[in-house]
Amino acid sequence: MARAPLLQLTDLSLSFGGHPVFDNLSLTLQQGDRVALVGRNGSGKSTLMKVMAGLVEPDRGAVVMPAGTSVGYMEQDPDLSAFATLGAYAAAALPEGEAYRVEMAAEGLKFDPDRPVATASGGERRRAALARLLAQAPDLMLLDEPTNHLDIEAIGWLEEQLAETRAAFVLISHDRAFLRALTRATLWIDRGEVRRQDRGFGGFEDWREATWAAEDAARHKLDRKIKAEARWAVEGISARRKRNQGRVRALAALRAERSAQIRRQGAAAMALDSGQQSGRQVIIARGITKRFDDRVILRPFDLRVRRGDRVAFVGPNGVGKTTLIRMLTGEIPPDSGSVAHGTKLDIAVFDQARAGLDDQMTLWEALTGDPEMRVSGRSDQVMVRGAPRHVLSYLKDFLFDETQARSPVRSLSGGEKARLLLARIMAHPSNLLVLDEPTNDLDIETLDLLQDILGDYDGTVLLVSHDRDFIDRVADITVAMEGDGRAVVYAGGWSDYRTQRGAAGAVAAPDTRSPVTAPTPPRSADAERSRRAVAKPQRLSFTERHRLDSLPDEITRLEAEIARLGEFLSDPDLFATAPAKFEKASAALADRQHALSAAEEEWLSLAERNEG
User: b/e map of 446-484 (b: 16 or more CB within 10 Å)?
Assistant: First the structure.
């Protein structure tokens, strides 16, 4: 039995500034459709969704909706200026007596309906817009990045609501797990063309690669035909006085067809340079705590981060993930306990608020105004990983064109701001990378690239994210902040964390590589005083101070010897040609590695006591 259409788009075309967003688009959305709308940032996904919602008029074509059909649209930047509270905005379109629907949605999405609009954050405004849409329960829901600014629990709640709804919906999202769980069809915008496949997002990547492979094969075939016809045209001059004008016109048509083809935009040329190698021990936190007034953020917590670890921090919004990372990196002190850093740390931070970007600056100024990137005496060049680059050339690496270079940062989309901040971070070598919500607003292809880059990165990564798929792909350690100051370490990514937590109830199996101390039970006053007396740091002796000063040179020497021995042993023929030398060098390498580890541990211990 055929399903009734909810929305029909016929021969739609739309251009902005002479650039086609889509052309000759025909599309039908039916009852029960669950559609993923995908494409690169700037490809026109949000614009197409606004056309569906009736908020943008196409240049040509028809948008037909049967009488009595209701369509609801959740926009990324809702206008709440006419309302006093978030709840008033969310309930504005509901019949009298049905405001309870907003309260139910507000509980699941974790926002206060009584919050004044004037003091609400951008994330709270978006959650109110989402609650408004869910409460209205239209026949067709259009959701533009609904998971942005939601924590994992709220994303799970929304996933359940959409899985149970009888309404049709179209989703734009970067959250792969969310799209895989909910969608049954995929719309793909690529270079002005909208393709549809009646399979969910889980089959998108195979479909995309197959489409591109067929496109490349067709282009190659066309290029060969043009080459053959062009050779005929040239050789025909000497062979015949009068050429076949039909073939000449056909050659011109082939060249016009080839010229009209729009090439795929390449991936951003992102790269990370880990620079100098940090010590094996990167961060050692012992018994750190934090509270703000009467609210406990973190109870006594231990964590050891080693070079190369990828540590994800998960938990509800507001639980203290960013605060914990700021303590671990030394930006803010813990209330009690200690944080010691290893040697030679170069830290780079990607913050979720994009605070490193000034909205009033142009993209050009955002790069040349960075003191670490500025090239002396040159206003058109920036220093990128130790080499000068022209500003426009470097911006093109991150998919910005020349017309954007002099545009203000405020004109950028969320995804473009994220790419610009990545451009600034990736210009400098770093061996400790802090990523606070890096996946917000980035398209799926850029996320793929970022994941690959992190896989090849020699440094250490601290990651805060609500993107379950991204955590699974990147993290090998997960710190779950479970509320009331409780933080527990689990081995693996998000799926491993859920499996371990489900198997052990509230008690986790700690990561053996990064030992953690679970929150300790309250102590009596006498026991606490005794503990503090025992734990009170002792002043360093003269010999210990001298040792603390000399250890960095010793660590540097050991690292150099390890590098030389590693290079010597890398000769594939060494074992066969000189087994005695191979055995001696291997023993020396193991000895130096053991000595380096011991020296780093000693330095950390002495440095911690000295700071205490």
Answer: bbebbeebbeebebbbbbbbbbbbbbbbbbbbbbbbbee
Q: What is the pLDDT of residues 108-165, one digit of tens each?
A: 998 999 999 999 888 889 899 999 999 999 999 999 999 988 888 899 999 999 999 9
Asked if 128 contacts 76 with a C-beta cutoff of 8 angstroms, the reply is no
Q: What are 475-532's pLDDT values in tens digits?
A: 999 999 988 899 999 999 999 998 888 755 444 444 434 444 333 344 444 444 444 4
- 190 within some domain: no
Count CB-CB contacts under 10 A for residue 100. 11
Would you say 508 and 541 are in contact if contact means Cβ atoms under 8 Å apart? no
Confidence check: pLDDT of 539 > 60? yes
Q: Give φ, ψ of 283 to 5 degrees.
A: -140, 130
Q: Is 15 helix (H, G, I), strand (E, B) or coil?
A: strand
Q: How many independent structural domains does the chain possess?
A: 3
Domain hosting 592: range is 542-611
* Interval 67-116: pLDDT, tens: 989 999 997 778 898 999 999 999 998 988 898 999 999 999 989 999 99
- How far is 94 from 182, CA to CA, in rounded Å? 26
Return d(Cα 52, Cα 61) in angstroms, integer. Answer: 12
Instruction: Render 303-325 in DSSP notation, one character per residue.
Output: EEEETT-EEEEE-STTSSHHHHH
**Residue 48 identity:** L
In a domain, 505, yes or no: no
Q: Rounded to an integer, what distance in angstroms lies between the CA atom of residue 369 and that of residue 360?
A: 12
Nearest to 285 by CA among 323, 259, 257, 252: 323
Among 376, 403, 428, residue at a domain's last position? 428
